[in-house]
Structures are given as structure tokens and as C-alpha cells.
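Why this split exists: single-chain examples teach little about how molecules sit against one another. For that reason, every record in the complexes split bundles all components of an assembly together and asks for one structure covering all of them. Below is a record exactly as it appears in the raw files.
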Amino acid sequence: MAQVTNILLCGVGGQGVLLASEVLALVAAEEKAEVKQTEVHGVAQRGGSVVSHLRFGDKVFSPTVRTGTGDILVAFEKLEAVRYGHYVKPGGLMLINDVEVMPGQIGEYKPYPTGINEFLHKKGFTLQAIPATAKAKELGNPRVSSLIILGALSAHLDLSPEAWERVIERRIPAKLLEVNLKAFQAGVEIGKSMAQAAAAGA
Amino acid sequence: MSLPSPGQRILMAGNNAIAQGAYEAGVYFASGYPGTPSTEILEVISQYSDIRAQWGANEKVAFDEAMGVAMSGKRALCSMKYVGLNVAADSFMVFPFAGTVGGFVVISADDPGMYSSQNEQDNRYFARLAQVPMIEPSDPQEAKDFLKLAFELSEQFSTPVLYRTSMRVSHSKGMVTVGERTEAPADKKFVKDVPNWVVPIFAKSLRAKLDAKMARMAEFAETYPHNRLEAGSGRIGIITSGASYTNAKEVFPEAPVFKLALTYPLPKQKILDFCAQYEQVYVIEELEPFMEEQIRAWGVNNIVGKDRLPRTGEFSADVLAQAFFEEEPVKDFTGEFDIIARPPQLCPGCPHRGAYLALKKAGALVTGDIGCYTLGALPPLGAMHTSFCMGASIGNAFGFEIGGTEKVAAVIGDSTFIHGGIPSLIDVVYNGGNTTTLILDNRTTGMTGHQEHPATGLTLQGKEAPRLDLVGLVKSIGVEHVQVADPFDQKEMYASVKEALEHNGPSVIITNRPCIFARGEKTRPKTPYVINEDKCTQCGACQRIGCPGVLPGEQPRIDEVSCTGCSLCAQACKFDAIGLKGDA
């Protein structure tokens, strides 16, 4: 069967997961024969769990990723990486943003769980932490985290930098374009350095 | 909206593709009522200046309008969530007796898996029930292309066509090659012909004509080129359609497939021939055994369907692999790690919260309706006790009252009240009820993503419209006890509720705070509330109002980013520990 790349982006409603997956889908659409993207969740709302499935390649039928076959999972929020981790293939890559969003809770109060990275590491996944919040602050705009995360992701995909730039220019409002492009570039550097570190470690 | 140039291949969601299909098919008029997963179809159509698009007060009204446009000779489309077709069913069931003049397509967006719905009915049965042809697309490209086919079919056989999409087709993106607008046939005119158009008097003769038409369509289905035979290898053949096709192709990439676009009437002989060629034929269809039962009734016994496949839930490649190969999907990690859920809640600053806090304090039994406010049933509010479908709340409340229950209140949103609540309120007055009705007027259709309606003052295509006066309407119905209350003022809100429940005679309370996402509300400057931790006793009262902006934990804190300054938490605090930022 033709090679298909399977990606999952997850997070919490309001974090920009859907915008990021739209940008990624548009970039893939520039260079791949087929792209399918869909969201799998209940009532979409602020603060709810959000997951977007994205598949591209020569021939793609279903828009949903099968469990245990995802090549890369991008978690905009740590707990969401565990919620959707079973979609990732054995040893698959997880890019995890350094953000914890406490779930709104009903009934007995539970503190935010600890040991997420250890758990996923033990499961055999390849983890890469993305310090997007800190980097966004450094760039002076906390809202550009999505583009930093996308930049880091781009280091792991065979989609050209030109396609990324074209789509970002098309999709992001002009007055925010410069900082978003900078954010994307910062993400690319994070992704590259991590990929190198991983290669050196291996 | 800048239109994509013909021939361009672009990424589109299924619903956007349907809208583009409507444009390309030369549709003149489109109507509907918002409902997931159909809403975007009409929202996107409204951006094409060549099409007149409008929200109907409900699906039946929208249907009747589109039907009238079609009878006048123009191409018309009516779009709704699948349960909307229940509302429009009265017209939908009878229109086929007469047929149509201009092309008429009804879009039903089904929701297998009930991602955002109250039941899981399979609307394919409606095609059979009403005796109309049905077309089902599988992906965004087909969602666009097949719509044009549906209009052609409608005109060829002078019949409404049911266009059945599902959540996964409507809400998935894929590559779509766009085309140009083709003008619909201009020679179609309504001709006065009482024996054809006055159905009740001539139903018997029209019924015979409909049967004859259906027989012709069944014959036509045998050679319909868009029912596609895909060659393959092996001893197992597959019959499928719609979203199920995409999953079947993932799991059985080499198998021969009979992919149906026209799923009613089925091409009987083609299917018999197909089944005869293979040792076994898998009928892969989501929800009910709609095709399977018809095929079995023809005496075919080498098919496999619901004996292996589930009758509920959405299909995925995982579901098929489990059914046919006993391949277990990878389990999620909940058994190994405490993954705290993120339950749906009313938004921070939602005015419904104020209404529920008052109802809860009054100890009312609350019959609910369909909208964001249904979330008021969940803890910690737990202030709604029944909810079924659009418009049921008021009749249900009156029924509880007749049945002997005291302190009953119906809760219904503004859009839902207009959709299906008005006749029930008339009935309460007419039949001498004491029912209390709360119309939660948040000035938008909230749950489906903030659409306009007759009481918002704007139309779907952005024209100013007379604003339905809810107070005047309710009074004209004969409700004498009508109050407008501020849900963010708990004293006032509770007093109103108490008074209404005690009032002898029908009573209505209309709340007056807009949805935080309503037009004009998003940009309003807001000062958040903060908790003075020196005064806070950690009693948890502020957390029990169920606001996501009041963070959980022993020491409650307010998330300044999400707080809209509604003040309900401050009113819940008995220790004066919550104040506006800067004042506290």
C-alpha cells in the first residue's frame, strides 16, 4: 500500500490546535497528492479536549488515523498526550508542549497528574518536549505558541520550507505575520536541535 | 467571498464542498435550520452572492419555502441535521406525491456515534418511507460532485432527492477540484394543475403515479454510472457507500467493491450479479442494516453484515478490522494512567448559569430543551431534569403539571422557542395551564456556533431584519405574567423565578443577557474578578456554580483570562472574598 503519513494534533479547546492543523493540512495540500483531515471529539468547546487527525500521501481514503499507527503525535497540552497516546505507533514520536491545563472538574477534586513523561517514555515512545510557552514569551507574544510547535513539527516532515512560508503568509493576518514567521523559525530550530540530540544519543 | 478558479484543486471540508456544489449546480435558493453536523453548509452557501440563502424558523418552514421555490421552477436546496428531517417530515412525506418542477434536494446530515446529537436514527429509511431517491457521497470531492447529480436526478424524475451525508463526510477536509457555475434549466415553469398539486384530494391517483415513478427509478438505478464497480482480487466482494467506503478501502484495499452513490432505490440486478460472483459479500454500512435487509429479502444468502458489524457508533478502520479479522484496536491508556476527563461545561460568563442557580435554589423540576443550556443538567448545577428534542420542554412541563407535579419550569432557548416552543405555549394558555417557562434569550443560536435567528435582527446573509419582540409575542399569546430578568443579578433572578412558580396562571421569564460569543459581545472590555485569599475560607461555594473560570483546587482561584466579570461567583461568596480586579 502507498505510503501515508499519519499525524495527530491534540490539546485543549482554545489553544489553537484547529488552526495549527489547518495550516499543516494546507501545507501538505501544496505538496502531496492527497490530504485528509478531521477532528474526532464530542461537543467542541473552550476547555474541552480536542484532537485532529491528519493523513497525507499518494492515496488516502479514511481521514481518521487507526490506533497504534500514528507517526507523530503533537500535544499542545501534556495530559492530552496520554489521552491520545494509543493512536501512536510503537516507538512513534511525540512532540509535547510544556503546558499543563488543569481540567475543569466535576465532583471529587484531583490534582494535575504527575509522571506523564515517564509514563510515555516507559511505553516506548520517543518524546520531545517543546518549550513553546517560554519561547513565545521570549518573542514577546504568548499567542504564537502554535507556530513554534508547527515549526518543531516541520523538522520531522518532508514538506518544503517554502510551502510552509506560503501557507503561513496566506493564513496569518498581515500585522501578525512577522512575529508568527519568527515563531515558526524558532520552532524549526528547536525541532532540528532535538532531532540532532536524539541522533547523537542513539 | 473570492471564488476559487475552475480547475483549481483545493483543500475543503465536506460541508464547504457541498456549498461549492450548490454554487456549481446553479442552485437559486437554499434554506435550512442550524444543526450539527450540517450548519456550515448554509453558512458557506450564504457567502455566494448568486444564491439566496436563509435560515428558516425551523426545518419544516425552511423545507416549505425551498419546496415553493422548486415548484416555481428554480433549483432549491434545504439543509438540516438528520433530526431536523423529523420536523420537516410532514412536507417531506407528501411532496413526492406531486413531484417537483425545478430540482429539489434535501440534505440530511446524520451523526453516527452521536458526537453532538440526541439519538442515532438512520435517515436512509426516510428515502424508502417517502419513496424518494437517495444519494450518498463518501468524501469532500464527491460531496461537491454528487450534489449536481442529485439535482439532475431530481429534474429527470420530477422528485425531491434525499442527499444523505454524515458527520465524517461533512466535517472532514480533503482535496477538491472545483468547477464553474452551470446555470440550471431555465424553461421550467409551474403549471396550474389541481389534480397534481392539491395532493389531499387526489392522493389515490398520485399514489399510483408515485409507485410507477419509483419502478422507473429502480430500472434507471441498474445503469446508473455513479454506482461504481471497482475491480479487485479475492473471493470476497464488498458492497458499501458513504463514509463506510473510505474505511472499507483502508481495511480491504485489494477487494472488489461495489460502491453505491445512489443508495435508494438499489440496483437489484447489479447487486444480485455482484453477489453471485463471490464466495462471500460483506455489506459494510454504518448504523442500520438498510441495504443488507433489502438484499437478504431478495434471497441472497452469502452476505455478511450486521452479524459481524456493530449497529451503533461510527465506523473506523479499527472497527472493521476488529469485526472481520478480530484485530483488537490499541486500548487507550485510561487503565494504566489516571487521565482526568475534561467534561463539557457552560462557558465562563454564560448567562444560563444564572438562570439555573435561581431554579436550583427554588427547587423546581426543570424540563429542558436542545441547546447549550442542556449542560445545566450536569453537576455541579444539576438543575435540568429532562431533555429530549427541539421544543419539547414547554409541553413536557405542562404535562408534569397535569400529572400532579408541583413547581415545574420549562427552560428553552430563544432560537428553540421560535423553532418549536410557540405552539406549546399557546397550548398552555388555551388549556388553562399554570406552567412557568423560562426563555433563555442569549440573542443567538449558541450550540451550533452562533447563527442569527428571527429575534437577533440580522439574516443569514447579513441583512438587517425586524427583530421579533419576544415579550410582545408572549403577551399576545395570552400570558399575563411576563417578566424580563437579569440572570447575573441573583436576587432579581431568584425573585422572578419564585414569583413565577407561585403565580396562578401561565408565566414566562425572559432572561436578558447575551451569549459571550454573540455578535458585539466578543470585543466588549471586561474586568475579571479575583479572590482575596485572606478573606477566603475555602468553603467551595464559588466552585459549586460550575464555572470553568473558577479553578478547582483547595484554594479556589479565578482564571483572569477566561473570567468575563459576570459576578456570579462573587454573589455566591458569603465572605465577601471575591471582588473586581483592582477593587479587591
